[in-house]
Amino acid sequence: MMKAALIGAGSRGFYAYGSYALQYPHEIQFIAVAEPNKEKREKFAETHNIPENMRFEDWTELLEKEQLCEALLICSPDRNHFKPVMKAIEKGYSILLEKPMSPVPHETLKIAEAASKHNTLLTVCHVMRYAPFYQALKEVIDQKAIGEIVSIQWNENVGYFHQAHSFVRGNWRNSGESSPMILQKSCHDMDMLAWLIGKECQSVSSYGSLSYFKKENAPEGSTYRCLDGCKVEKECPYSAAKWYLHDRDVWPANVISADSSIESRLKAIQEGPYGRCVYHCDNDVVDHQVVNLLFDNDVTVAFTMTAFTKETFRNFKIMGTKGEINGNDAKNELEINYFSGKKEMIHPETVDGGHMGADTSIMADFIHSVKQKSNSSLTSAIVSAQSHMIAYAAEESRVTGAIVSLKEYVENLKEIKEEVL
């Protein structure tokens, strides 16, 4: 059984990865946790029977000790990844690092270089590569079922409520505190596209903005908080009362407070960030964005991320020289239309767990890699840093309006990194 420590006992650390140890206690045991929020720290520690002397308020306390165990999971906020991961590499841990590696491009390059230098197993949580649905898609593409890929249309439908919860009210609402939307949410997509196409990205152009979730669009009669006497709360689709005070088959009720009782949730929306009106928050990340990508061999991609969808899912059309693939991950459906007239429908196997079973699959893969003493993985630091560069370049293009050459962008970053060093 692998023993592990956790830095960051928030939603991803507690539910996505921590829950794996409860389901498969013969595979992994958490023996230490570092989390500044006392309520979250104690909840995780008690859930996993972690002794008092292995509960740390700060990651520095954990990493100043001699190596405690084989593996370390780093699930702290985006801007708190760089220092602990660099220290953990020095200490000799095998590392599972939540994405993004860092909101700062040259820090991402330094992480990748350090992992390579120390032969460290560093798996980045680009979890979608591990989902059975996308594994099946990759297999179809690699078999050349539709010939050579020529172009792709790819949509990330964020969902109106997911946007409101995570990117307007929540932890990833403000790029200065976390990351730009294209990096925090859509680095999955940039990573999958690079993986599926299997070629180098040459250039990027992008447009997008925060168009709707802002003060000037607040309805007449709205208030700073949903429960402050808002006159339109009853009909508002974003009402905090509707989403957080009722039992729903969604994750938010477990996120806004450690205690999921009605009393605790009510207090959270009366006093905390999730009770704010979506038009009166300090959010600045975009609510829609398009990215155009040019890969080697003239492969082109048109990517769209938008908040303004009813459901949260990805759908796409991959067009090749011998046919096309239409995919919808919510339906677990791949439709292959061959130019010969043949049609094939694939419904890949499913696995329990978040992100279409990907959270379960990445944990199983990571544990296996640690046991095998391997220093490589499907989403290694080097591989993930490369797809991160596409996301950084897309944000650069969106902000400046310029078409960004990936090669030139990375070369400039390396110069910056050397200056910082």
Characterization of the model:
The structure is a single chain. Helices cover 37% and strands 20% of the residues. It contains 15 helices and 15 strands. It starts with a strand and ends with a helix. Belongs to the Gfo/Idh/MocA family. It holds the Pfam family GFO_IDH_MocA.
Features:
alpha/beta, Rossmann fold, Dihydrodipicolinate Reductase, domain 2
Extended strand count: 15
Number of helices: 15
Overall mean pLDDT stands at 95
CATH topology of the largest domain: Dihydrodipicolinate Reductase, domain 2
| CATH class category label of the largest domain | Alpha Beta
The coarse silhouette is globular
Strand order of the largest sheet: 14-13-12-11-7-10-9-8-15
Count of separate structural domains: 3
Secondary structure: elements and pairs:
Blueprint: E1 2-7, H1 11-23, E2 28-34, H2 38-47, E3 55-56, H3 59-63, E4 71-74, H4 82-91, E5 94-97, H5 105-117, E6 122-124, H6 132-142, E7 149-157, H7 160-169, H8 181-184, H9 187-197, E8 201-209, H10 240-244, H11 252-256, H12 262-271, E9 288-295, E10 300-306, E11 313-320, E12 323-328, E13 333-338, E14 343-346, H13 358-371, H14 381-400, E15 404-405, H15 406-420
Organism: Gottfriedia solisilvae
Family: Belongs to the Gfo/Idh/MocA family.
Domain Gfo/Idh/MocA-like oxidoreductase N-terminal: 3-125
